[in-house]
Amino acid sequence: MAEFVKTKLNRLKRGANRAVYDKETINEILDAGFIAQVGYIYDGYPISIPMAYARKGDKIYLHGSTANRMLRAILESGKTSINVMHLDGLVIARSGLHHSVNYRSATLFGELKEITDDHSKTALLKDIVDHMIEDHWDTLRPMHQKELDRTMVVEFTITSASAKIRAEGVNDEPEDYELPYWAGVIPVKQKLEKPIPDDGYPLTIDIPKHIQHHYNKFK
Known about the structure:
Number of domains: 2
CATH superfamily of the largest domain: Electron Transport, Fmn-binding Protein, Chain A
CATH architecture of the largest domain: Roll
Protein name: Pyridoxamine 5'-phosphate oxidase family protein
InterPro entries: Pyridox_Oxase-rel, Split_barrel_FMN-bd
Pfam family, one: Pyridox_ox_2
Strand content: 35-45%
Radius of gyration: 21 Å
Order of helices and strands: EHEEEEHEEHHEEH
Shape: globular
Largest sheet: 9 strands, antiparallel
Distance between the termini: 34 Å
CATH class of the largest domain: Mainly Beta
CATH topology of the largest domain: Pnp Oxidase, Chain A
Organism: Tenacibaculum platacis
């Protein structure tokens, strides 16, 4: 099973027993979400911004306005880090100190470049949209050239990564297990509510089949 090489950059020190370097597991975490936290430095301040993304192999694709200061900053530096995290449960212990959460988190390190030709940009924007809702791009109005011109697409190549996963119960002090306090795990699930049509034409037609399918899958 292919793994990322452990380095000073990606090696987990705290909670090392929960560390995962397996590429397949990390890709599963990435593919289960569509919002990533992207880090950059602006005017001396470390900032992280949530961004929609798509993954293709060892590449992550981001998009934004050509005036987006975060995209400009990471392109100038040539590298950044990205994190994707899923909350899976609230771990309720007998002591406040031992409260925790169950989660899957992947942190990526890599290099960047801008995608500039229109054909590639359009294909990658399709990937980003379809990663959010499968088969959605082909049901949309074609993009205007001026929209494409104002949009920047950035390719992030994963050069190093690690994941940290907690999927267990309460870890209280041994002497606390007989105390009369409730403890346990409250599972957390993300679900979709019923789609709400926009005003105008959408009010007069049925919800498209692919959107209804997506809703049924995650409701």
